[in-house]
Specification:
Elements lengths: L2 E2 L10 E4 L6 H11 L9 E8 L2 E8 L1 H7 L8 H5 L7 H13 L5 E3 L2 H20 L16 E4 L3 E4 L5 H9 L1 H4 L7 H20 L1 H13 L4 H8 E4 L16 E5 L3 H4 L6 E8 L2 E2 L11 H10 L4 E3 L5 E3 L1 H12 L2 H11 L20 E4 L15
Parallel strand pairs: 1-8, 2-5
Antiparallel strand pairs: 2-4, 3-4, 6-7, 8-14, 9-10, 10-11, 12-13
Helix pairs in contact: 4-5, 5-8, 6-8, 8-9, 12-13, 12-14
Length: 383
């Protein structure tokens, strides 16, 4: 796991690029922003070039006055509205939001080359575009995949059939506009599929050899859960030094925790794993046309406690139909909405700890590792 803790001044924030391409500060700024199709931001981007024990580097960050104007307190949820970006219909606007939020990073996003930076931006774009199309059938017990692409083994889980493209298999399992069907798996596994798809699409362009290794791996066994996190993801923030609560970059994975101990015991309702889509919206894998705002996600999770019951087997379940009118009533009552948000928009407690204070906001964000030949730190385990 790669966890970055430090936050602070220009020396520890924004984008840090290492390698021979960096050159002098102004030339490096021009080179980086040109590759990101963001040269018009140059007047607002501060730059530092130098060398340390790891070699030459250039660091770029958005000026304090622009951060304050566009995302005060590093609240990036309103950035698209502030700058009139249409990230849903204009792919260039989505790339712009990704670049801006990286430049605003309160902790430096580090890359070993300009190529890795470009790939990281494209992977985030791929993830957002895939997450927007992903729709699942919610079921805490059932599991299924398209049978022409996947096969199941109790010991290994779901693997792709020999000769089937990993990209095609992931797409068909998650996107009903392609498959014509809804398949059942957890929100956590869904985020893995979306992230893996975004990475694989970039590897097809920039590192076909690594894509072939992934292809071979998934015909033998999947990488999932904790191992998936270790192999594919980097992480910023910590419980001791959390990221700003409203700071998100499109393509981030984050967790909204259920702070109610009783309802958190219901399978599938411990919390909610989501991808940040940009534009202040988080994916809704169950209702494609209804992505979550932060407010709606917090209010929904708060009301899970009011849907708790035991089924015929004595297992805890949540009756979502029962709580839907409660969610709508709270959203439409400004005083009640604010009361709930005061409880929920706190940082979450550590796992296993529940308090009356509540709190569902995670302290960290997760995103893809480096993928380019020669600098990739995405290393697959033995089959």
């Amino acid at each position: 796991m790669n966890v970055t803790h430090n936050q602070g001044g220009p020396a520890t924030r924004g984008i840090l690029v290492r390698g021979r391409e960096t050159g002098d500060a102004n030339g490096a700024r021009h080179a980086v922003l040109t590759l990101l199709d963001a040269l018009d931001l140059a007047p607002h981007v501060r730059v530092e070039a130098g060398a340390d024990a790891l070699g030459p580097f250039v660091r770029l960050w958005l000026s304090d006055d622009r951060v304050q104007a566009w995302a005060p307190a590093h609240d990036t949820l309103q950035l698209c509205q502030t700058l009139a970006l249409d990230t849903l219909n204009q792919p260039g606007d989505l790339m712009r939001e990704i670049v801006l939020t990286l430049l605003m990073g309160p902790v430096a996003f580090e890359f070993p080359s300009l190529d890795e930076l470009v790939s990281a931006v494209r992977i985030r774009r791929n993830i957002v575009q895939a997450a927007r199309k992903t729709t699942l059938a919610f079921h805490t017990r059932a599991l299924d995949r398209p049978l022409d692409c996947w096969t199941y083994d109790e010991d290994r889980g779901f693997t792709i059939r020999p000769g089937v493209s990993l990209i095609a298999a992931l797409t068909k399992a998650t996107q009903p506009e392609v498959s014509g069907s809804l398949y059942s798996f957890s929100c956590y596994r869904a985020t893995e599929y979306v992230i893996l798809l975004g990475i694989a699409q970039e590897l097809q362009q920039s590192n076909p050899a690594l894509l072939q290794q992934l292809q071979t791996m998934w015909t033998a066994r999947p990488i999932a859960s904790g191992e998936f996190h270790e192999v594919f993801l980097r992480e910023q923030g910590s419980m001791d030094e959390p990221l700003p609560p409203r700071y998100f970059v499109p393509g981030d994975r984050t967790w909204f925790r259920n702070p109610d101990e009783a309802s958190a015991d219901a399978s599938g309702f411990e919390g909610s794993w989501v991808m940040y889509l940009g534009g202040g919206l988080f994916c809704n894998f169950w209702k494609l046309d209804q992505p979550y705002t932060l407010t709606r996600k917090c209010v929904e999770i708060y009301h899970w406690r009011h849907g708790l019951y035991r089924d015929e087997d004595g297992d805890e379940r949540i009756d979502e139909a029962r709580i839907e009118p409660l969610i709508e009533a709270s959203l439409n009552d400004p005083a009640e909405r604010q009361r709930i948000l005061a409880v929920m928009e706190r940082y979450r407690e550590p796992r296993g700890v529940y308090t009356e204070a509540g709190g569902c906001i995670d302290t960290t964000r997760e995103f893809a590792r480096w993928v380019r030949p020669g600098t990739a730190d995405l290393v697959l385990p033995a089959q």
